[in-house]
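Same chain as my last thread, 259 residues:
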Amino acid sequence: MKIVFIGAGRLATQLGKALLAANHDVIQVYSRTQEHADRMALLVGGAATNDLKSIVQHADVYILSVKDDALPELIPQLCKNREQKVFIHTAGSIPMDVFHGMALHYGVLYPMQTFSWDRDVDFSQIPCFMEGNDTLAQDTIGELACSISNTVYQLSSEDRKYLHLAAVFACNFANHCYAIAEDILKQHQIPFDVMYPLIDETARKIHEMSPSSAQTGPAVRYDENVIRAQSQLLRHNPFVKDIYDRISMNIHRKAQTHD
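reply #2:
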């Protein structure tokens, strides 16, 4: 398919690379910043532009991979005179109907993964969640998704909101905890890489048992002496102390329910 990307961030770049490898043709890349458009176009092909008025009319698919709050502004401009084309956004928490009244054929392709500029991913292993408003949109998005991923699911906008919420806990919040751990270790000249075996084993375990069954530590058994002492160590950082206290309490409550 002939594809135009609107947005040149981390997700767009990695998705563009995967689509290029699947023999699709990225014919244009738009970003508000010309430098960003140039960088992505160099990797996935197509002409780079920072001018919405120069977006071509003859693409099969227009993929919007931008910040959520940019969609309402961009969609009316992009859909005008292109109503017959297929429009797709890649956001986890934005409903499909953001295109309603602007385009005839539209939907969502949400690859659930964390993306970085300098780290390529194997898209075949990434679950992709799709939704389309009609047969043409569903067939088009399904063809794109199946050409890059071995795992494609149909999922409604309502359910996708909860999927995205779960992903925030499993990825973004977990990584923030790594960052907190790194800060604590730095204060005592301990390298963060001592955490790698622990982090890796924690991730491996949940391939074999539920996260609730895999939970360990002072909070799950509610060792008050340890919890109180560790909380006091964080007394000079009230935000992190609050995180520690609240998560510890929630782990204990969940353990009681699980039992």
